[in-house]
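Standup notes
- DV: blocked on the single-chain target, sequence here:
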Amino acid sequence: MPRAARGRVAALNFIFVTVLLDMLALGIIVPVLPRLVVDFLHGDAARAAEVIGLFATVWALMQLLFSPLLGLLSDRFGRRPVILLSNLGLGLDYVVMALAPTVRWLFVGRVLSGITSASITAATAYISDVTPVEKRARAFGLIGAAFGVGFVLGPAVGGWLGAKNPRLPFWFAAAFSLLNALYGLLVLPESLPRERRQPRLRWQDANPVGALALLRSHPELLGLATVNFLGYVAHEVYATVFVLYATYRYGWGGRSIGSALALVGVSSMLVSAAIVGPVVARRGERGTLFAGLLLGALGFAIFGAARQDWLFLVAIPINCLWGLAGPPSQSMMTQRVSPSEQGELQGALGSVRSIAMLVGPGIFAVTFAAFISPERAVKVPGAPWYLAGALLILAAVVARVVLPRSASPAGAKGPVAAPDGGLAGGSS
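- DV (later): unblocked, structure below
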């Protein structure tokens, strides 16, 4: 293998490990954070639920506010320092949470976690820097697989550690992040050469409103951002009603719900790691995007209609084929901005994702409550799933409008990046 190709593979492996460890660290604390909050509030479960909801909202707000800033910083100063400092900050944040003497200190930890976790913008921009255009969808798919692995293993490891000591998962999460920062300090090369960086930091764009201006710079870019936003909103149905729906309709307990969520994680991981690349190679990015959206909508429709739990389980792998849509969509967006704007693009997408995280749960919670209300003559518990499916159909319509068959990244502001040191491993 040529030296340039080896360098690209090593860099991608590090980014994969970075995302994987970040997701593991986040997942590890999921089973124990509510317990700590309840303990701090002397067993007041109702108050604890309010605090956990506040934690989630503030975390999303930090992502909304800081994703554009970290993306712009990576465009100005390079991806490497932003990624390493964020890994270091995330590790120190988990130390704060491990030592937290009060719920207020836990709150401080969640704020810091929301800020430092926004570094996914720089990590994703790094992928755009080091990967040729024709291989980006597959690379983004591998990052999706890292999310899936973290989703499956993180809570399982956290539950096992938390059974021994509720503070132990925070220490393990801190160790993961700090070791990864050290590893990156030793092996991670910079992907954005100085001549391709922004000449100055544009503070007017280092906020959600300014960042979204980039998405309005070209119709296809704005259309793809809209497709992503609708998908992000639809995805919130999982976090909002999955447990409630399974309990209400099928009478599932914790073990059944955990097994079903594990199936979601494994299916998503397999789609991202093993299916995205071959499908993109066969159908192209545009065709793969439509296939993912339509299969995701079909899975949601089956979720809503399934009267038996076995049919609900059968629909999970079908719905997870929705994961085909994300990587090609992101790849096509990276082709429509210049090399020095990749971080800004990822920051803008981070803001879009955060907005969806803020509005999605309320939409699906209200829909579920309205359609199972005792006052309602005909109950439709599957209504949230139907709504999520409708959002994906709408996303497919938007994509059809902005991506005609002859679509090409004509609106790109410059050539596709090839980092210094030959990390891209080929021309694009």
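- Follow-up: The longest helix spans residues 254-305.
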